[in-house]
Amino acid sequence: MTKGTSGKGPIDARLTELGIVLPQPAAPAGAYVPFVRVGDLLFVSGQLPLLNGEMHFAGRLGAELAVEHGYAAARLCALNLLAQVRAACDGDLERVSRVVKLTGFVRADAAFTDHPKVLNGASDLMMEVFGEVGRHTRAAVGAASLPLNASVEVDGVFELEYPPVSR
After folding, report:
1. How would residue 29 be classed by pLDDT, with cut points 50, 70 and 90?
2. Among 42, 154, 46, 158, residue whose Cα is nearest residue 100
């Protein structure tokens, strides 16, 4: 389905329906770029749970933070991923034909084992926004530390098509 007279396609309409406003894409915090396109694949650098430049959900899962906090942190990371994808696609998320893979890093106490439950925050968002196209492969990895004391970091690989995908 293409954009109608409102200028919104199905993905934009779905974001509106879900009450989601994507943040501005974060600038890189080091010597890297936010995304790289190789053929039909878009690789997006790791995103932290930042909102308007402010860290949310700092700390360790299983210590200062509960699984529910980690889930919310992963969801915020996924919103930042989508903001980078939108920027890479010149504002047109309809070009996403598949969410291929998410990798999540969970800063956790040594005894914490619910990394997959934390990363469901990112995975659930992708499926809410993209439907079946949002189903993806995933890795959930524990980490002793993350940049800026973040609790979660998520990167992603997306398949793009041009012209936009019919939905």
Report:
1. confident
2. 158
Mean pLDDT calculated for residue range 32-55: 96
Band of residue 8 on the pLDDT scale cut at 50, 70, 90? confident
Burial class (CB in 10 A: 0-12, 13-18, 19+), 33: exposed
E-assigned strand segments in 39-122: 41-47, 50-51, 54-55, 96-107
C-alpha 75/C-alpha 92 separation (Å) is 21
154, two tokens: 């998520």
The domains of the chain, with CATH numbers, are 10-160 (3.30.1330.40)
Q: Say if residues 152 and 104 touch (Cβ distance below 8 Å).
A: yes
